[in-house]
């Protein structure tokens, strides 16, 4: 059972941003500080990647654990109300993410998915990004 009224829940959900989220800004700041130059959300590429590094033919997606269903993550919980609605929504998100990954692979773009919960540890994040781009 939801603890909020439908109006309060609607207001909360309307405040969720689709771009320039805190995790995205943190990744972009870190990349810039590491000396990488990049582009943002190009509609030319499938899935509108959050960060595009044309020099490396690489893209980075910054996914929210809740919305994109990060397996094993405590933030990828199932809401208690409207379970069927949320299950359909989450399944569609995961399916779309898989399709985008396949399309980018066909276009020979390298891709890295960074999860919201991974953003907190900057040193681990730096190592992960360096390893990803070093292989290009």
- For the secondary structure, the number of strands is 4
What is the count of helical runs? 5
The amount of helix comes to 40-55%
Give average pLDDT, whole number.
88
Major beta sheet, specifics? Answer: 4 strands, mixed
Helix and strand run? HHEEEHHEH
The outline comes out as: globular
Beta percentage is 5-15%
Strand order of the largest sheet: 1-2-3-4
* Distance between the first and last residues' Cα: 48 Å
| Helix/sheet category | alpha+beta
Quick synopsis:
The chain is an alpha+beta fold. The chain has helices spanning 6-14, 22-33, 65-68, 83-106, 122-134, and strands at 39-40, 51-53, 58-63, 110-115.
Helix/strand layout:
Layout (H helix, E strand, L loop, with lengths): L5 H9 L7 H12 L5 E2 L10 E3 L4 E6 L1 H4 L14 H24 L3 E6 L6 H13 L2
Parallel strand pairs: 3-4
Antiparallel strand pairs: 1-2, 2-3
């Amino acid at each position: 059972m939801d603890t909020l009224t439908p109006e309060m829940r609607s207001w909360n959900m309307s405040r969720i941003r689709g771009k320039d989220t805190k995790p995205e800004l943190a990744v972009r700041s870190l990349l810039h500080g590491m000396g990488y130059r990049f582009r943002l959300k190009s509609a030319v590429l499938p899935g509108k990647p959050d960060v595009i590094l044309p020099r490396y033919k690489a893209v980075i997606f910054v996914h929210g654990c809740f919305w994109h269903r990060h397996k094993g993550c405590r933030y990828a919980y199932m809401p208690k109300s409207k379970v069927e609605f949320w299950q359909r929504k989450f399944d569609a998100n995961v399916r779309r993410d898989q399709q985008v990954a396949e399309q980018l692979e066909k276009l020979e773009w390298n891709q890295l998915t960074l999860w919201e919960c991974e953003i907190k540890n900057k040193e681990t994040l730096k190592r992960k990004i360096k390893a990803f781009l070093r292989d290009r």
